[in-house]
């Protein structure tokens, strides 16, 4: 990929307080660590639901990122049909999000929808990034490991590094 065409990436879960803001933060951090900012126009995250719009990430999600020295700076927001024109990659965490995104995606829009687990190149992790909201901190830690690995694989495969 050349740097002439910058890409935009959106991460999506249900409420945009656990998985997708973590994925956004981890991905943004990986991009910065590898000095790849020039390849990206925009990196953001959304929820398919409007339950937490304007709210901060879940404290456990933020604490897990902080533990790994990954900064999180996000307010929950809901994805809208117009976002399918703003983003090239719309990456969701599970099949429920995938169904919801396919339902609201306008025909012939720019954005392509993927499961984040599509970048699970050696089946190291579960392909689905399960919602840790009703569980303990271990679920957030597992999510962090998943999204870190998937982010690294995305950067290798999509940018052909």
Automatic annotation (TrEMBL):
Swiss-Prot/TrEMBL catalytic activity: a phosphate monoester + H2O = an alcohol + phosphate; O-phospho-L-tyrosyl-[protein] + H2O = L-tyrosyl-[protein] + phosphate
Record bears the keyword Zinc: no
Gene3D superfamilies attached to this UniProt entry: 3.40.50.2300
Active-site residues (renumbered): 13 (nucleophile), 19, 131 (proton donor)
GO molecular function, one term: non-membrane spanning protein tyrosine phosphatase activity
One family name in Pfam for this protein: LMWPc
Highest taxon in the source lineage: Eukaryota
CDD domains tied to this protein: LMWPTP
InterPro entries: LMW_PTPase, Ptyr_pPase, Ptyr_pPase_sf, Tyr_Pase_low_mol_wt_mml, Tyr_phospatase_low_mol_wt
Keywords: Cytoplasm, Hydrolase, Protein phosphatase
Hydrolase as UniProt keyword: yes
Protein name: Phosphotyrosine protein phosphatase I domain-containing protein
Provenance organism: Kazachstania africana (strain ATCC 22294 / BCRC 22015 / CBS 2517 / CECT 1963 / NBRC 1671 / NRRL Y-8276)
Gene name tied to this protein: KAFR0H00850
